[in-house]
Amino acid sequence: MSNVRLATGGTWKTDTKEWRPKGGRGFYEKQRRPIWRLVPVCVLIAVAVASLTIKRREPKHKAPKLHHLAPPIADQLVRATLDLQAGADARLVLTNLLSEEDRSYVNETPTDMRGRAKGRMSAADRALVLALLSRPGGSYHPGKVRGVRRTGRSIVKKNCLVFGLPGDGKRWTDAGHRLVFLDHREDAVRAARDEGLNAYVVRYASAPKSSWEASPYATDPKKLIIDAPSYDFRDEAHIFWDLVIVDGPDSVQKDSSGRAAPVARAAEIVRRQAASHPDRRVDVLVHDAHRSHELELGLAYLSPLAAFANYRSLRASRAPNSTSEVRFAWFARAPP
């Protein structure tokens, strides 16, 4: 008997001449198990260690990746335009762009039981004009002051051409912007000039409303002529107009010439300025576009040249029993 067998213990079987080690017949077989059986155990241990390591490295509040998010909109007016296209309330959206002084002025608008303005522009329309005049950038630089500080923003003055004599024209002029008012009523122009407005008399060659057929849209250039005996339209061609407002002539009366000529002139201005200054922005507002004729004029002349920025808000104002205050059709030609 060897010393190894004596040390490990066991019994000697005389019948088979075989040494049976302590622990049973399979002792040596257990010691000779193949190594590949340990591979699954090692894999499970490695996965558990890796998962614990990853959890420790991740922060509790991981910040979102910026390249997965939409870029922020720097221009507040562009953001307001997108909100209006999505159907947001025009008055609430636009008053957020105004200063406290402008907001208080907008809130002074008297309205009836349906929320419509009495004899003046609605609060939403006035807020839109003030927002367009107050946005950064412009083409008019006053001689003494090139810009003013208001609500933390440096504002350059605007060039604004207005067809008609809106009731808020005095406030727009007092804000320091250069405005030119064109109206066919000589007595109204005389009264406006006495108030300090830069107003001129014009005459329209378009046919009166009583002779309109199915559409006010005119293609005859002779019907779109605007004669201005006291204003030289050659100066108008050399000025870059940041804003054009069409609020006249009155298109309710049967003998009125309608607004085909001023809307067509606004479209001509947009087309000319887009060719000469493609990197500049111009906005056109057609008032009373909740009526069919004014809306059709804006769509016919301006929609091929500029984006219809507030079509959802204006569509809501045309619905039966609507309390929406939107009356302007806003066409915005932004740089490409």
From TrEMBL:
InterPro entries: IRX15/GXM/AGM (IPR006514). GO terms for cellular component: endomembrane system; membrane. It is a single-pass membrane protein. It holds the Pfam family IRX15_IRX15L_GXM. The chain crosses the membrane at residues 35-54. Keywords: Membrane, Transmembrane, Transmembrane helix. GO terms for biological process: xylan biosynthetic process. It is found in: Endomembrane system; Membrane. This is Uncharacterized protein.
